[in-house]
Amino acid sequence: MKKRKKTASVREVQHNLAKYLDIAQNSPITITKYGKEAALLVNPQKYEIRQKRGKRNINIEAIMNSEFIGMYENREDWQDKTTPEIAEKLRRDAWYGK
Length: 98
Fold this sequence. Notes:
By secondary structure, the protein is of the alpha+beta class. It has 6 helices and 3 strands, in the order βααββαααα.
């Protein structure tokens, strides 16, 4: 079952702010103005966690040149493949299985 996105109009939020603040502790609420999305009311702790989670600095160059990825370059069936292709194959196999 899909979670329904919670929405409320500006007027509803103005009249029932305390209620919507309580609801926002558990799930974000989209605030609409004239039927269009205008703002998002979220729990600040959850927002902070998502912000930190999204700031991962992945050094793709270092991953592609790592010894782990490089050790597969000598396999006969992968002689004509590039390192990113090998990495993608390993990633797919790890995620979905062989």
